[in-house]
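Q: I'm writing a short explainer about Zf-HC2 domain-containing protein for a general audience and would like to include a description of its predicted shape. Could you first generate the structure from this sequence?
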Amino acid sequence: MNKECEVIRDLLPLYADDVCSETSRELIREHLQECPECSAVLEKLRSHEIENDLREEKDSVLEYQAKRIKRRTTTVGSVVSGLFMVPILICLIVNLSTGHTLDWFYVVLAGLAVCASLILVPMNVQRDKLFWTFSAFTVTLLVLLAVCSFITHGGWFYLTASAVLFGFSLIFLPFVLKARPVREFIGSFSRPVIVLSVDMILFANMMNMITLYSKSFLSTGFMFALCGAGAWLLYSAIKSKREE
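A: Of course. Here's the predicted structure. Afterward I'll give you a sentence or two in plain language.
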């Protein structure tokens, strides 16, 4: 590459941006007609600038769409939250006016919380929507069962909650363990061992609740032993992984 090419290539960025003088532009144009190497450098320079422009335009469009979706989600979430407040206020007024106390209002409130967990959580959570929605649904469902048990003066909450947790674990736990927050928490631990251990513990707990209600103390002791075995299996798996 001769000195003229070096000078021309130093001026090519200005030429590509069309900010050089008319004299320099004419000189560069004449050189490009005779030098294919410098012409190739100019083409690469222009293609690189086009790629940068396209990338910046793409980023700006994505950012605009993200802000637009976020604003829309916030607006819809606010509207839905307001709609949820209407039946809550109505039930509060009716409950106080008829019974002069709050009893079934809490049942309505807990039931609406279950609905909200399935509607508002997916709308407001940006990542891992299924995981957080399922977690919120499980918690609010347990709260609803607890409120119903308290209102009816029944002692069936622990029995029902143990059955619900075991059923959810049996079906959904393998999928829950694939969620990003859970993967980061458990690390490289064996998922099948975790599933087996948790299912065993929850099953033993459910059977233990059943035997307590049936007042079969021999079965209760057996279920406690089974629950302990599941907990020990889970502890052993975690300990062995940490030692590795």
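A: For your explainer, you could say: Residues 155-244 form one domain.
Q: Perfect, that's easy to follow.
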